[in-house]
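Milestone 3.1: sequence recovery, worked example.
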């Protein structure tokens, strides 16, 4: 079974420049921008520029250049935001996928959250 990518999703529109964003970092294959509804002092979304729905899709089908670029872009954002362990107090990365993961935007994104203690990983259901 293959992954279905909807090119009308909001992050595809951001990548095409149809919707504004507050860019934190742009690299050859990745874009990082501030979440519109921040849930912590640092709340940045990092997306690959390619049409991938989820992390499993990306890891299966992206080129090595895209994977290296994306992985390093995430780390660079952590450093830029002062949450990397080189100088900061840490962060959480979240990547929701599909309905059980409660993914609202079907373009791969990692949330980078930090700047305050974030509590335990999941609220009890
Ligand atoms: P998720 O549930 O993991 O798919 O999170 C989607 C995130 O995207 C959510 O935290 C809010 C954010 N978001 C939704 N629309 C926009 C937008 O137009 N611009 C920006 N910057 N963020 C958005």
């Amino acid at each position: 079974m293959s992954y279905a990518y909807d090119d009308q999703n909001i992050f595809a529109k951001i990548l095409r420049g149809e919707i504004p964003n507050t860019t934190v970092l742009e690299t050859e294959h990745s874009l990082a921008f501030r979440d519109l509804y921040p849930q912590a002092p640092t709340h940045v979304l990092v997306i690959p520029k390619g049409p991938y729905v989820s992390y499993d899709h990306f890891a299966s089908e992206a080129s090595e250049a895209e994977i290296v670029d994306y992985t390093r872009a995430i780390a660079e954002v952590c450093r830029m935001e002062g949450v990397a362990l080189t100088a900061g107090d840490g962060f959480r990365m979240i990547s929701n996928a599909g309905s059980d993961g409660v993914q609202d935007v079907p373009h791969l994104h990692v949330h980078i959250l930090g700047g305050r203690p974030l509590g335990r990983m999941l609220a009890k259901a």
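Helices lie at 10-15, 55-61, 64-80. The pocket of 2'-deoxyguanosine-5'-monophosphate is lined by residues 10, 19, 21, 33-37, 96, 102-105 (CB under 6 Å).
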